[in-house]
Write a structure and sequence with these properties.
The protein has about 55 residues and is an all-beta fold. It is about 0% helix and about 55% strand.
Length: about 55
């Protein structure tokens, strides 16, 4: 099973190019994996799933 240590959403104000966006990425197995860029702020949710026998 993979080890995802953290997920980050970084707000970027690029004044040089007059851009504002959110950069989304995560750390998986000691590597950075880029999810993408978004023009709107993503909502964050945490959910717990329990599988019963």
């Amino acid at each position: 099973m993979d080890k995802i240590h953290e997920i980050r959403i970084e707000e970027v104000f690029d004044e040089e190019n007059s851009n504002h966006y959110y950069w989304i990425y995560y750390f998986k197995n000691d590597e950075v994996k880029i999810i993408g860029k978004s023009s709107i702020k993503p909502k964050c949710f945490s959910q717990i799933a329990r599988y019963l026998k």
